[in-house]
Amino acid sequence: MSASQVLQEIKSLANTGRAFDLQRFFQTAPGQYGEGDIFLGLVVPEVRMIAKKYKDLSLKEIEILTSSKFHEARLCGLIILTLQYKTLKERNEKKKIFDAYMKSLQAGHVNNWDLVDVTAPIIGEYLIDSDDPYILLYKLAGSRSLWQRRVSMVFTFAFIRSGDIEPTFVMAEKLLGDKHDLIHKAVGWALREAGKLNGIALRKFLTAHSHEMPRTMLRYSIEKFSERERKKWLLESKMVK
């Protein structure tokens, strides 16, 4: 198995018309968050199908994929990392996958919201047994990189899945002042999911912070509330501002 074989299969499914639409959807024009990214026009199920076929690819070959100029190749490589991670039991083996992921993130190859959201909730599981996960989470949250900041939030989905909502609220508070809409959405999304486990904790967070939360963040976080309660939080936050 090799990265070149994977790329050949990806290219065989290229769709020029869909690629054009995807480049607009993922905002790849100059000055936009996905500037310069190149799409071949595959849909995610097609990429997942290829990733599953090559799930035993070596880390060296995966790195070739995750550093590709083609978005779908990077996505495929990252999905393969998640597939391999899910099969592992030993922490030292999981660390190899986690380190490979972080290398790609720090190199700027995990560089759009879909790449983050498909992978970070799975790879973030490695942090659950860390002595102090906040050391890395805070570092990522303070990065100039939009994608590293988004990863700092989306990593906490792994904690939510394990029943631990504290990291989500800690990182949400850390990112309250972020200026980018994609961070507002990620924080609101994570808060909403944490609220499914503990609605009282979410309402306590909103009581303390709804007045300073960007509108998009607030709307996402209260999405599962009743219409009456959603209107209440939106009105109260507006009145305080």
Radius of gyration: 19 Å
Helix count, DSSP H or I runs of 4 or more residues: 15
In CATH, what is the class of the largest domain?
Answer: Mainly Alpha
Major pleated sheet: none
User: Which range does the strand content fall in?
Assistant: under 5%
The helix content, as a percent range, equals 55-70%
Please indicate the count of domains.
2
Poorly predicted spans:
none
- Give the overall silhouette: globular
Q: What is the first-to-last residue Cα distance? A: 57 Å
- What is the CATH topology descriptor of the largest domain? Leucine-rich Repeat Variant
- Assembly type of the chains comes to single chain
Give the topology string: H per helix, E per strand.
HHHHHHHHHHHHHHH
Average pLDDT number: 95
CATH architect. name of the largest domain: Alpha Horseshoe
- The count of DSSP E runs of length 2 or more, i.e. the number of strands, is 0
Query: Helix/strand-derived class?
Result: mainly alpha
